[in-house]
Design a protein that fits this description.
By secondary structure, the protein is of the alpha/beta class. The protein has a single domain, classed as TIM Barrel (Alpha-Beta Barrel). The chain has eleven helices and eight strands. Strands 1-2-3-4-5-6-7-8 form an eight-stranded parallel β-barrel, surrounded by seven helices. The protein starts with a strand and ends in a 19-residue tail after the last helix. It holds the Pfam family Peptidase_U32. This is U32 family peptidase. It comes from Candidatus Iainarchaeum sp.
Length: about 325
């Protein structure tokens, strides 16, 4: 099982590979696209400058370094959808990404998936979590469109993710599961929140709409006590983005044939990315030799070493896999 790490500049590639990343992914928002559509209309789901490369020349230099170490680079074109006028422009960018050395693509829009698979059959195309795949029937459907890997939806329980991974393996499809950072409060592919909520284009990293401090009111016929719990749950998501973790699910991912575990956080500083790789690498190593109970104990300690705080259920990708299942 490989570790897929994000990167946002060429300078990060060599250190990430040396730390243990077996796969890398990035986004590219070239100047002409940003000028025409702005970062609000990013070609991928990150709308901040710090999360993206700014040119395909930068991608080419990055891929060259990675490929020397036999580490493939995936380029993200995973906006939920593109207009019919944008599809030809996006296909031109996909062509540039492949020509620049990208080995794989991360795509959400089914129309783009089908078009890219037809035009670039040699590329490994991953179905983004922004296009959620819920069951074996959808696996077969997206395989028919050209997907060779499924990024498992973030909101799945560990048991659900394992079941879907096994089903994907039986259909000859790889799977990828999130291990650290950026749990989404909602189902990615069904969320209409805009990631960028500030009008200023000068901000390097944009705040996320789903993580703002909301005043929440519940309506309906449910008992008042249930409404209060629901409101409290929504508010818990505020500012929780930096502490999300799925390390406890790694043993189950290993047994289920998951191909790669993914670290989110393209805009994170290099030091944080290196710490994340180290933690995931350690977790994979421990998962191969410890009992389930001992592993959860070690994973909890790894979490504390990363975040200097105890893990909480709200930050857990797979509560059914770790101490919260006890």
């Amino acid at each position: 099982m490989k570790i897929m790490s994000p990167f946002a500049s060429t300078d990060e590639v060599q250190p990430l590979v040396e730390a243990g990343a077996g796969e890398l992914y990035c986004g590219v928002v070239p100047g002409d696209w940003a000028e025409k559509f702005t970062y609000t209309g990013s070609v991928n789901l990150r709308h901040d400058r710090a999360a993206n490369l700014s040119s395909f020349e930068e991608l080419q230099a990055s891929a060259k370094i990675a490929l020397k170490c036999n580490v493939p680079v995936f380029a993200a074109f995973n906006a939920h959808f593109y207009s019919k006028h944008q599809i030809p422009l996006i296909l031109e960018q996909v062509d540039k990404a492949i020509s620049s050395g990208a080995s794989g693509l991360i795509i959400a829009d089914p129309a783009l998936l089908r078009a890219a698979a037809g035009k670039f059959p040699e590329a490994k195309i991953s179905l983004s979590t922004a296009q959620p795949c819920f069951n074996s029937h959808s696996i077969q459907f997206f395989k028919g469109l050209g997907a060779k890997r499924i990024v498992l939806p973030r909101h799945l329980s560990a048991a659900e993710a394992a079941s879907l991974a096994k089903s994907a393996c039986s259909h000859g499809i790889e799977t990828e599961a999130f291990a650290l950072n950026s749990i989404c409060p909602f189902i990615d592919g069904l969320c209409t929140f805009q990631h960028m909520v500030e009008p200023s284009q000068s901000l390097e990293v944009q705040p996320l709409a789903c993580r703002l401090n909301y005043h929440v009111s519940a309506i309906g016929a449910a008992p008042e006590s249930e409404k209060q719990i629901a409101c409290s749950h929504v508010k818990l998501w505020s500012n929780a983005l930096s502490y999300d973790c799925g390390l406890c699910a790694i043993p189950l991912f290993l047994r289920s044939g998951v191909s790669s575990v993914k670290i989110a956080g393209r805009a994170n500083p290099l030091e944080k990315k290196l710490q994340d790789i180290s933690a995931v690498k350690r977790a994979i190593s421990l998962a191969k030799k410890l009992s389930a109970a001992d592993f959860v104990e070690e994973a909890t300690a790894l979490y504390f070493s990363l975040y200097r705080r105890s893990c909480q259920c709200i930050n857990c990708y797979c509560p059914d896999a770790g101490k919260w299942s006890r």
